[in-house]
Amino acid sequence: MSLTVNPSASAPTPLRFPAFSVDGLAGTSFKPQHLSAILADGKQRGFFEVHAENYMGEGGAPHRALEAVRREHPVSVHGVCMSIGGPQPLDKTHLARFGMLVERYEPILVSEHLAWSTHETTYFNDLLPLPYTEATLSLVCDHIDEVQEAIRRPLLLENPSTYVAFRESTMGETEFIRRIAQRTGCGLLLDVNNVFVSATNHGFSPLDYLSDFPLAFVGEIHLAGHAEQSDDEGDMLLIDSHDCPVVDAVWKLFEIVVGRCGLIPTLIEWDSNIPAWPILKAEAAAAQAILDCYAAIAREDRHAAA
Fold it and tell me: Largest CB tally within 10 Å, which of 112, 133, 237, 246?
């Protein structure tokens, strides 16, 4: 399904905020406690990402902070509670609020997770995995179509970090994700840390996963830290915790991805145990340095070919 706009619809509302590009840029999660430091730094080169559910109220301090940042910087909106993989219909109220938030802040990127997180009226504090079957594929595609119609633009779908696998799955995760993108026209958000976490937990090669991942659909990259634990058998278990710096192995995978698919906007996620702004800013600067390095290589290649 390719997203189309009704030609009989009224003319679009004039933009409320400047239109920025994020091509080849690194950004960070926006945390309100960093607002003063961000504003003191002045206009940043990168972008900021917010969780949609933190801004679904009509007003108040969260919106004042986000508006202050949005006036000078591009913003991306990342949903965490849509439950796109859930067996029940999407929550129409939640979807409407999500759509209004997208309209209000005109984000450069909009994304959600390949996961489910609700049961009836209960929202879980987890992004839970799916069985990769034809039935689930059809359900997820229908939900993505519904979201894209509501926001009137393509959605980026994020690959999950997982801790269990389903015996009834009939296809691999990369095939499942590829078929979603092909059927719905959505883009993909490649979370490199999630690839590393899942590969470690399930014992597969992250390089093999990336080799089979549909990189042509990727519109954003996420990088984050993870926690190390042990399971009941004493084996290593990684948790996608977003509470520490990106590890060297994930940085190396990121370099491989950039080398294969180019200068994709890249975000540092840090959602708990929040550090001081200079620490988070330095993580984004490290990602930016890698992107800039590959941009320079691409320019040299073009010059040599001319």
Answer: 112
Q: Which CATH class is domain 26-305?
A: alpha beta
**Residue range 88-123, pLDDT digits in tens:** 999 999 999 999 999 999 999 999 999 988 777 776
3 state SS of 63: helix
pLDDT at 153 over 70: yes
Neighbours of 126 (CB within 10 A): 10
pLDDT at 2: 41
154: phi > 0 → left, psi -120 to 50 → alpha, else beta; which?
beta
Distance between CA 187 and CA 185 in Å, rounded?
Answer: 7
pTM here?
Answer: 0.93
What DSSP line would sit under 98-121, residue for residue? Answer: HHHHHHHH--SEEEEESSEEEETT
Where are the alpha helices (H) located in the chain, listed in sequence order?
A: 35-41, 61-70, 92-105, 134-151, 173-184, 192-202, 206-212, 248-261, 277-305
215 pLDDT above the threshold of 90: yes
